[in-house]
Design a protein that fits this description.
Layout (H helix, E strand, L loop, with lengths): L3 H14 L5 E6 L10 H8 L4 E7 L2 E6 L4 E5 L4 E6 L9 E7 L4 E6 L5 E5 L2 H8 L10 H9 L5 H6 L9 H11 L12 H20 L30 E5 L2 E5 L7 H6 L1
The protein binds a DNA duplex through helix 6.
Length: 268
DNA sequence: AGTACCACCTGACGGC
DNA sequence: TGCCGTCAGGTGGTAC
């Protein structure tokens, strides 16, 4: 799940359940998720401290620790937070537990272990080193068009390039291209200014609506692509069968009718 | 620079 | 029922 809307929702969940709470203990159940630190160090840094602030950039969620520094979470393909009070409610793949003074604990759960938890002093320096670009929702239309206009290769790859803009993953890239009626294999350089502006509008609309729907696929509008990514399902707009292809090794869904390649469109 | 391919890890699902 | 290949919403390295 964890693309920009999911991580935004995780952040709000964290805010409700863990912000301003005092950490009593940190329990690391699988240290392989820790990136540049150890269970002992994480516990030493956090015990007795509060989480005071939180900031999302793309698919990263950074949580400020009073007294300095940040804990930065990445959720991989299967990560999420779960707050629980009864021990029986601890989720199945909890990898790190933050236990709070006064009761309750926040679990960082990650079945496939592709997630990462790290300690960071200088957030900006970390993002620079990681080449994490500006958050997809922070870019205005002009800046978006500007960044995409020097980009080569296929548009879907560009949308998913976290250094170009951060937050769009495989599922929402397809959704955004479907809304903008752009074929995912279109060469980015074939897109006109008007296409890029439409793409930016579609991106904002999709990401914002997904956040409003709590990033819950079942709550998304029925005329979106996402509820229809099933073999044999049809385009909710024109009724033609949806197409599936592979781009960059990732499954890609589209409506071959509604989404024509830019180069094909402008030949006529 | 862009792309293809592999690897990391675990579980669910379909076919035989 | 059981085994096995395939697939999954992310990212990083390598080689062309």
């Amino acid at each position: 799940m964890p693309e920009l809307p999911d991580v935004e929702v995780f952040g709000r969940y964290f805010e409700r359940h863990a912000l301003e709470r005092t950490v009593e203990a940190v329990e690391v159940k699988d240290a392989s998720l820790l990136e540049n630190t150890s269970g002992a160090e994480l516990a030493r840094v956090l015990t007795g401290k509060r989480f005071t602030d939180l900031q999302r950039r793309g698919k990263h969620l950074a949580v400020a620790v009073d007294g300095g520094g940040w804990v930065v979470f990445h959720f991989g393909m299967t990560g999420f937070f779960r707050y629980f009070e009864a021990e029986a409610d601890e989720p199945e793949h909890a990898r790190v537990l933050f236990r709070f003074k006064g009761g309750g604990a926040l679990a960082y759960d990650c079945q496939r272990k592709f997630g990462e938890v790290r300690l960071v002093q200088d957030l900006e320096a970390f993002y620079r080193a990681k080449e994490v670009g500006p958050d997809a929702l922070s870019l205005d239309r002009d800046a978006f068009v500007q960044r995409f206009s020097d980009k080569r290769g296929r548009i879907k790859n560009a949308l998913m390039d976290q250094s170009l803009l951060a937050g769009v993953g495989n599922v929402y890239a397809d959704e955004i291209l479907f809304h903008a009626r752009i074929h995912p294999e279109s060469a980015t350089s074939d897109l006109l200014g008007a296409d890029l502006r439409r793409l930016h509008d579609a991106m904002r609309e999709v990401l914002e609506e997904a956040i409003r729907s709590d990033a819950n696929p079942e709550a998304l509008p029925a005329d979106w692509l996402l509820p229809h990514r099933l073999q044999g399902d049809c385009c909710p707009r024109c009724g033609e069968p949806l197409g599936k292809m592979e781009i960059n090794g990732r499954p890609t869904w589209l409506c071959p009718e509604c989404q024509q390649k830019a180069a094909v469109l402008y030949q006529h």
